[in-house]
Amino acid sequence: MESIRQLLQIVPRFGDLPQAFQVFLALLISCAVILAVALVCVLYLVWMERKVSAHMQDRLGPMYVGGWHGWAQTIADALKLLLKEDIIPAQADKILYRIAPVLVFVAAFAAMVVLPFGERSIVTDLNIGVLYVVAITSLSVVGIIMAGWASNNKYALYGGMRGAAQIVSYEIPSAVAIMTVVIMVGSLSMQDIVRAQLGGIHRWFLFRNPFTFFAFFVYFICSLAEVNRTPFDIPEAESELVAGYHTEYSGMRFAFFYLAEYVNMIVVAGVAATLFLGGWSQALPVSWVPNQLIPGPVMFTFKVLLLIFVQMWLRWALPRLRVDQLMYVCWKVMLPFALVLLLGSGFLAVYWK
Amino acid sequence: MEVEYSGDTMTLNMGPQHPSTHGVLRLELKTDGEVVADAKPHIGYLHRCFEKHAENVEYPGVVPFTDRMDYCAAMNNELGYVLAVEKLLGIKVNNRVRCLRVIMAELNRIASHLIAAGTYGNDIGSFTPFLHCFRDRERILDLFEESCGARLLYNYNWVGGLMCDVKPGFEDRVIEFVDYFEPLVADLNRLLSHNYIFIKRTSNVGILPPDVAVNYGVTGPNLRGSGVKFDVRRNEPYLGYEEFDFEIPVGKGEFGPVGSCYDRYMVRIWEVMECCKIIRQAVKKLTPGDVQETIPKRIKPPAGDVYMRSECPRGELGFYIVSDGSLKPYRVKVKSPCFTALSALPYMARGAMIADIIAIIGSIDIVLGEIDR
Amino acid sequence: MNPTEIAALLKEKFDDRIVESKPEAICPASVVDAAAIIDVCRFLRSGEGLDFDHLELLGGADYKDRIEVVYVMTSLRHGHRYTLKCRLPRENPSIKSVETIWAAANWHEREAFDMFGITFEGHSDLRRILCPDDWEGYPLRKDYKTPTRYRDMPV
Description:
By secondary structure, chain A is mainly alpha-helical. Helices cover about 65% and strands about 0% of the residues of chain A. Chain A has one domain (about 90-350).
């Protein structure tokens, strides 16, 4: 945001506007940029998922639309969804039915404003960045329950209930795993966390101490549950509940849920990359290469893409956990383990700087 | 298993159209939260009056109808009917016909078990093995297509022989397929059967104790999954099966009680390996000959009745045929193995959760075409 | 045990309630009096050396003057199998249900009821299984006329 504000100074008479107004305009523009970036990324993530899943299943995936390996496939699909008839079930709760996809979508996008793409490429570096992400992503639970309830469909209700239970439960071990890193850094701001990892791959929290190493895996697994990806995709279990909480949605409304899922994936991978993989910092140690060789955003994108690829890989290789097994894993395995990790990390942070 | 149900139960219809019920099956579930209090299957959505049709066509004309009952394993259906009529007529077929019938039946058994395994993985949430299984099944369907022209519904086994002989080089292609396929079963095991999540989802679910299974008339892999070692090919051999060397796999209960969904699934995977063994032996035994030499000109069995059972991939397929001495059968009654297996579903579903119902239906591997006829 | 021995055992135990036995036919069978079916089945199920624990098939057949119910059963333990038949009159055919002896009989009897109209006394849930619940007529009878309308829809 700051860089956009500097950029805007060249516009005549921009500097005469009051400070707050300048910031507001810059924020607006940077949010629009992030929105555009995210939407384009989602388009290509959907294509990537289709290609990755196809090659894992020994088939080809999209090949024709647009020419080379069907790169325009998602654009075609998005157009199709836009042009579909807007069907609202007769007995559905009209207002809640319309609001639910918006809420889920907003919760996902709003978390993108604190992702640090580069040293100065962040919409706003909130000093409570991590807390903000955790809080905003929980808003999607409200949207899911609304969608399940307002559809007036038993299957959707089941999906909504399961989804709510799953997301709310898995937030706890995921937040505790995040805390292990925050304790080491002493600050909730995303840029501070990245700056604490500058200096080479050995400074990344993944490799710095054994507690954060395991915390990375705890966070990654819990975040899969947050995003409703297999093996935790019970709420949208295709073969069990038809499509779970978004059974009754079609057209653009369904597209909202679908986009929100992929934006959530980006957010969660972005947070994992920032906290554990060093964000936009490079892997080579500072003593070898004093200045950043590869630009920050490129490094960040690369790490996020890697994590997203792993998420997709897990989706297409593993079966789905049953609801009670899911809850068991969360409360009896992840949470105690995460608490132990927090204890250890805190100990290290205090006694061994 | 005694479960206490608190509050009212909600009736949930897993309606005739559902991605996981393997056909048009309606399950009326009474659920209390996620736990199922009762599961009542309603069938008849795919009833095509096979038995009535069979009374109006001549004996050879019934064969295409039998194909369409269990469309995933059509060769075995035809075989059951054709063996019954041959028993009534007292025809003995020559060695070439016998070996070819065995090869086709076992290939179809592999194809059917691949569908069972793949769709079961799909129901449990693992989407990749489904496509790998179908990729391998395509090779089997190519073999069928070159022999009789059809991929799914063959009309190949005729009363007294076969529709036509196989193309030259067929035996080599079959062996090539078996050589290609046997190592891939290990891949399937690594991906699905030995996967911790899959085992957790299936190994304590849908327990069918052996005595209950026998009481309900369950046969085939479902019965063998409960630990009862009974296979028609071994106990009442037909088509020369007594000369083949193969094992009868039974469920071992490695991860839970014997008779769980996992046992039934693993029995199918082990059976696939045994089928490969049988196919190799049958190809070795194959001799040249005329596949149509024992087909009678007019099929007019003497008056009487016959019951012939054969092992189809889903269990024991039984044909009860009554003949009144004319060209058309008087009564053809089919005992379909999935029919009896599905009748045991309410027993297996008590105390299960909704996700488990899906696992149970997938493990008994039903095909509604056979249940409803 | 071979079918001749089984037929002899049955004849010995039930005497005149076994109408006729054909153990040498392609499908060895005994025709049993309809009223005695439960006793005969119970004897076959739990008799010494018999142990017919597996009911394979329970079906109906419509001959012009009678309706027959066929029971094909196997013993998994001993490996032998046998068939029983019961002759019922065409008007109101009814016979006792063997559901309590073999649970497999439940659905098979429902199908026989659906297709032939045979009433099984003592069955826990006798309703149509393959045809819709409000279908009229018994499809597999030889004198069945396909209805032209079902619930005001032309068939």
